[in-house]
Amino acid sequence: MMAKPSHDAHVIGPQFVVPYEINVVVNRCPTGYLEITDIQNNIMFTIRSCNTPLHCQRLMRDGRGTPIAMLRAKNRTAHDRWNVFRGQSNADSDMIFTAAKNNMIQNQTRVNVSLGNKTSHNVTCDFHIEGSWSKRNCAFFSGESSTIIAQMRLAQPPERFMVTISPNVDYAFVVALIGTIDAMKSSGSIKAAGHVAVGIATEAVGAAFGAVRYISGVGPP
Q1: Which pLDDT band, with edges at 50, 70 and 90, does 148 fall under?
Q2: What value does the mean pLDDT of the chain take?
Q3: What is d(CA 70, CA 57) in angstroms, rounded to the nearest whole number?
Q4: Residue 221 per-residue DSSP state
């Protein structure tokens, strides 16, 4: 059993805190969005892409469709930083937390979380996540401690996984963290695919230019 945190983690709101352990199921739906249910299959939250031409972002709603949090990638950052705001806001005054990878290249997932609008890189993180995201085996820790506030585990089918959340922990906050890490991984895959496509296109253009030079008698291809 997970250790009880030393403090009540009321991050998004006290209405999302219960005095007992809670299990949620995260489902990736065919269209790509995340649907979070309880073990009776009642929808608790959804997280859907709502990108703009300038920002990669996700909107988290509760089961009634009320906006809970806006997850937005911070452009041009070295550590894939995402800012999470209340409702549909993107104002600094409504920032709930910031999440960022501790290294750009990772064999294992490690994401540091700072509450509020903290900009100093020297500030100790308030929470952190470690483990294997691809295997759905990540733990959520309080601060830099070994106190686990939530634990992921793989379910069946592979598009599903379960998260056990400790008593007195804001479960909406944990769901927002899951959505943020999933968005990080998704945007990272898109960026990687884009870089590969650019490389292939560059090679193709170079080859075509060389062929033109050869046909024109300018030089070898």
Answers
A1: very high
A2: 83
A3: 7
A4: -
